[in-house]
């Protein structure tokens, strides 16, 4: 990391090495507004105003306003330049694994901004929001139809919140049956970290299940871990290695026979939507990330959305509020009945996310959703076929689902790490793939192309990845150890930045003291 005397990262030196085939169009460093402007001038002339101390209650400013003097074009151009430095799905391929950074159709955005959806308030009388409730009812219907489940809770705000909801429903079900002594949750070692965290948060003890040589969970290992104290298993399918759990039906049967429930992490539902119904596989609860599967943005300008579908066994334990129907009139059940886990959040959820997801469903139809899932799987397998002669696949001999997982074996002896390789991707104009996850694979490189990307985009990405791999194997350590060299800033000390963040601007003189 190159630092100046004040401990600030310096801009990179000019780079003369020819660019590879990737779209290397990174912008130079952008100074802060406080560094662009000064305190002696103003972009706008305003007359002095006489204000008495009495009017401000003794709170009149005693020191000059610490703002830089800028013209409106200067301020506007600054923020436009910053926006161009922000990598997004609208500017290039986003190959993060296990995150499904797919295209967000603008039609979804237009629908979500309709006044009848965007301008309503959660405390309005239900008689004035019948259209919104109908949209929520339709979304609930299609989520249950796609998963073959009996109930759905729309209120969870994200995937981890959905996990909490599903596991709370399982806990409520056990307590209703007089099985509150069940205090163990089985979690595969390849699971998302939120799975064991959620179980522990609810007071459960977590028992890890090792992956087999194929990267999946073996039913025999699950059976060996089951006991009268096990409350549930939390299994991701497709799993975080990008593989379909081929023994999932047998695992579900064993879990149910032991009196436990099957929680499925639905983060990777994008690979099977419209093709496989998780309810047919034996799951009792599953959260669905609308921002991954149904194209709503990650965040969407507010809370996310992680609805949870529930089996017939868990449906009585769903949280409130939920949409009810009495003839042609729709309402909200606001008070928990017997067996319900209660209220998970103050209001129902994020209306904008519901509308975006429903728009995506209705515009695709059942056949279109299935085609999107199949295309996501096809794209991942295409990348695997184009790269597996140079990269190393830890669990080979089987097709992948929505993402392809490589490890760092191909870098052995080169002096180049997974992190070095990922940083070099930035120089070629690509956001790095997911690194070092899942933890079951040494030096993991997890790539998910999604169904959004065309063959031409995938081929351009492949050529860049192949060129980087060949250069790494050739021993060109300098290219990787110092990367990125064409980014606005050189490689940063990320550990120091995380432990000693500077959250407030300081002039150079103050920072040096």
Automatic annotation (TrEMBL):
<comment type="function">
    <text>The glycine cleavage system catalyzes the degradation of glycine. The P protein binds the alpha-amino group of glycine through its pyridoxal phosphate cofactor; CO(2) is released and the remaining methylamine moiety is then transferred to the lipoamide cofactor of the H protein.</text>
</comment>
<keyword id="KW-0663">Pyridoxal phosphate</keyword>
<dbReference type="InterPro" id="IPR020581">
    <property type="entry name" value="GDC_P"/>
</dbReference>
<feature type="domain" description="Aminotransferase class V">
    <location>
        <begin position="181"/>
        <end position="299"/>
    </location>
</feature>
<dbReference type="GO" id="GO:0019464">
    <property type="term" value="P:glycine decarboxylation via glycine cleavage system"/>
</dbReference>
<dbReference type="GO" id="GO:0005960">
    <property type="term" value="C:glycine cleavage complex"/>
</dbReference>
<dbReference type="InterPro" id="IPR015424">
    <property type="entry name" value="PyrdxlP-dep_Trfase"/>
</dbReference>
<dbReference type="InterPro" id="IPR000192">
    <property type="entry name" value="Aminotrans_V_dom"/>
</dbReference>
<dbReference type="Pfam" id="PF00266">
    <property type="entry name" value="Aminotran_5"/>
</dbReference>
<dbReference type="Pfam" id="PF21478">
    <property type="entry name" value="GcvP2_C"/>
</dbReference>
<dbReference type="GO" id="GO:0030170">
    <property type="term" value="F:pyridoxal phosphate binding"/>
</dbReference>
<dbReference type="InterPro" id="IPR049316">
    <property type="entry name" value="GDC-P_C"/>
</dbReference>
<feature type="compositionally biased region" description="Low complexity">
    <location>
        <begin position="8"/>
        <end position="23"/>
    </location>
</feature>
<protein>
    <recommendedName>
        <fullName>glycine dehydrogenase (aminomethyl-transferring)</fullName>
        <ecNumber>1.4.4.2</ecNumber>
    </recommendedName>
</protein>
<dbReference type="InterPro" id="IPR015421">
    <property type="entry name" value="PyrdxlP-dep_Trfase_major"/>
</dbReference>
<feature type="region of interest" description="Disordered">
    <location>
        <begin position="1"/>
        <end position="23"/>
    </location>
</feature>
<dbReference type="GO" id="GO:0005829">
    <property type="term" value="C:cytosol"/>
</dbReference>
<dbReference type="GO" id="GO:0016594">
    <property type="term" value="F:glycine binding"/>
</dbReference>
<keyword id="KW-0560">Oxidoreductase</keyword>
<dbReference type="InterPro" id="IPR015422">
    <property type="entry name" value="PyrdxlP-dep_Trfase_small"/>
</dbReference>
<feature type="domain" description="Glycine dehydrogenase C-terminal">
    <location>
        <begin position="373"/>
        <end position="480"/>
    </location>
</feature>
<dbReference type="GO" id="GO:0004375">
    <property type="term" value="F:glycine dehydrogenase (decarboxylating) activity"/>
</dbReference>
């Amino acid at each position: 990391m190159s630092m100046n005397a004040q401990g600030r990262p310096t801009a990179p030196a000019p780079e003369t090495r020819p660019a590879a085939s990737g779209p290397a169009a990174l912008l130079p460093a952008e100074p802060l507004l406080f560094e662009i402007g000064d305190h002696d001038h103003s972009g706008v002339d305003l007359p002095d105003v006489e204000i008495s101390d009495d009017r401000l209650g003794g709170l009149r400013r005693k020191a000059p306003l610490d703002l830089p003097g800028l013209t409106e074009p200067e301020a506007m151009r600054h923020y436009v330049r910053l926006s161009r430095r922000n990598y997004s799905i609208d500017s290039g391929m986003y190959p993060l694994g296990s995150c499904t950074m797919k295209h967000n159709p603008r039609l979804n955005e237009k629908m979500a901004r309709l006044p009848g959806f965007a301008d309503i308030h959660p405390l309005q009388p239900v008689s004035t929001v019948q259209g919104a409730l109908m949209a929520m009812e339709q979304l609930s219907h299609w989520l249950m139809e796609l998963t073959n489940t009996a109930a759905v809770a729309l209120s969870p705000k994200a995937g981890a919140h959905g996990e909490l909801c599903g596991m709370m429903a399982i806990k409520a079900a056990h307590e209703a049956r007089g099985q509150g002594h069940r205090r163990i949750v089985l979690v595969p070692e390849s699971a998302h970290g939120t799975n064991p965290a959620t179980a522990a948060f609810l007071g459960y003890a977590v028992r890890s299940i090792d992956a087999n040589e194929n990267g999946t969970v073996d039913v025999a290992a699950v059976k060996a871990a089951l006991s009268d104290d096990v409350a549930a298993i939390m299994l991701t399918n497709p799993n975080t290695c990008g593989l379909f759990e081929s023994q999932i039906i047998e695992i579900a049967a064993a879990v149910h026979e032991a009196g436990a429930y099957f929680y499925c992490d639905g983060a990777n539902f994008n690979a099977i939507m419209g093709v496989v119904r998780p309810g047919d596989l034996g799951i009792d609860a599953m959260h669905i990330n609308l921002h991954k599967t149904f194209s709503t943005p990650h965040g969407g300008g507010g809370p996310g959305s992680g609805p949870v579908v529930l089996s017939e066994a868990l449906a009585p334990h769903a949280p409130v509020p939920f949409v009810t129907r009495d003839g042609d009139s729709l309402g909200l059940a606001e008070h928990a009945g017997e067996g319900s886990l209660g209220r998970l959040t103050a209001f129902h959820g994020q209306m904008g996310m519901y509308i975006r997801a429903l728009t995506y469903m209705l515009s695709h139809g059942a056949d279109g959703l299935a085609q999107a899932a199949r295309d996501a799987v096809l794209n991942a397998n295409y990348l695997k076929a184009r790269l597996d002669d140079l990269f190393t696949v830890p669990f080979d001999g089987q097709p992948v689902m929505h993402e392809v997982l490589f490890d760092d074996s191909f870098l052995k002896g080169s002096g180049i790490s997974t992190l070095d390789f990922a940083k070099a991707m930035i120089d070629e104009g690509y956001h790095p793939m997911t690194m070092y996850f899942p933890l079951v694979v040494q030096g993991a490189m997890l790539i998910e192309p999604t169904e959004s990307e065309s063959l031409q985009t995938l081929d351009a990405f492949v050529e860049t990845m192949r060129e980087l791999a060949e250069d790494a194997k050739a021993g060109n350590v300098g290219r990787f150890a110092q990367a990125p060299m064409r980014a606005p800033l050189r490689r940063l000390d990320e550990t120091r930045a995380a432990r000693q963040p500077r959250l407030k601007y300081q002039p150079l003189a103050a920072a040096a003291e």
